[in-house]
Specification:
Elements (H helix, E strand, L loop, with lengths): L2 E5 L4 E3 L4 E3 L6 E4 L1 E4 L7 E4 L2 E5 H9 L5 E4 L2 E4 L1 H6 L8 E6 L8 E3 L5 E4 H10 L5 E4 L1
Parallel strand pairs: 5-9
Antiparallel strand pairs: 1-12, 1-13, 2-5, 3-4, 6-7, 7-10, 8-10, 11-12
Helix pairs in contact: 1-3
């Protein structure tokens, strides 16, 4: 099976309620607050070291028995500028995509350089939900 590096859209950053341990690398997050500043529409987003995914895409991963991840709840907020620019825009529900797998072995894993690595079948699933602003390269 082929594997790919995926560098997702960065639509915002870690919010002030994020709890993380920066004494380790990558920093370990125990509570995630993702703050959207400008979302272009992808189903998978990041703000190092966190990944988030739409509930719809997460359900597809679950139904396909993809390996190497857990989905968790998160706090999601939007910036004032986002509300001003897109007053009517509704965001989908997002979940924290906690990657636990081994790169090149599980469907989702984190490489030694901290980049996300996904199997071809997971890449195809994510593309179906919107992955237009991600950088994708061969692993």
């Amino acid at each position: 099976m082929a594997y790919y590096y995926v560098e997702p859209e960065v639509a915002g950053g870690l919010g002030k309620h994020t709890v993380l341990d920066s004494s380790v690398h990558p920093p370990a997050i125990t509570k995630l607050h993702y703050r959207i500043i400008n979302w272009l529409g992808d189903a998978l987003l990041e703000s190092f070291p966190a990944l988030i995914v739409t509930r719809e895409a997460a359900s597809a991963l679950n139904e396909a028995n993809a390996s190497g991840y857990e989905c968790r709840e998160l706090e999601l907020t939007v910036s004032d500028s986002f509300r001003e620019i897109y007053p009517e825009r509704r965001l989908p529900e997002f979940l924290w995509l906690s990657v636990t797998g081994v790169a090149g072995h599980n469907d989702l894993g984190i490489a030694h350089d901290s980049r996300l690595v996904v199997s071809e079948r997971v890449l195809d699933m994510l593309k179906a939900f919107g992955l237009n602003h991600a950088i994708v390269e061969n692993y």
